[in-house]
Amino acid sequence: MDLRDDNLVIKAGPGTRQQALDYGIARFREREKTKRILIIAVTVLVIAFGIQMVFAPEGRETVAYIITPILLVLSLGAIGASRFVLKTPAAEISVDESTDKEEPNAG
């Protein structure tokens, strides 16, 4: 049995399980590193958007109030946030896009 991925082929033989395990662990670590980098980027963007709203030039507040939430939602989408809730005294905005899909039984 061969294990195949984009650029990796692990041939069956002695040590195959260990190779597959090492590859899986390395792939998991890289995925977590990427997720952390995206979370840091979103944090910086959220802070920048907050500053943009507070220090918007006179006469351009309306534009800042429109653009800032749009950019905030886009940045949250970059980290894979599938649920967004905004509650204010005047209104409540909620978006929930579940990505869980039922897999058919193989059996």
Largest sheet: 2 strands, antiparallel
Q: Report the C-alpha radius of gyration, rounded.
A: 22 Å
Number of helices: 2
Helix-strand pattern: EEHHEE
- How many E strands? 4
Helix/strand class: alpha+beta
> Helical residue percent?
40-55%
Strand order of the largest sheet: 1-2
Query: Can you give the mean pLDDT?
Result: 75
Task: List segments where confidence is low: pLDDT < 50 over at least 5 consecutive residues.
Answer: none
User: Distance N terminus to C terminus?
Assistant: 21 Å
Number of domains: 1
How would the global form be characterised? Answer: elongated
- Proportion of beta-strand residues: 5-15%
Topology, please?
Elements: E1 3-4, E2 9-10, H1 16-54, H2 61-78, E3 83-87, E4 92-96
Antiparallel strand pairs: 1-2, 3-4
Helix pairs in contact: 1-2
Please sum up the structure shown.
With 107 residues, the chain is of the alpha+beta class. It has one domain. The protein is 53% helix and 13% strand.
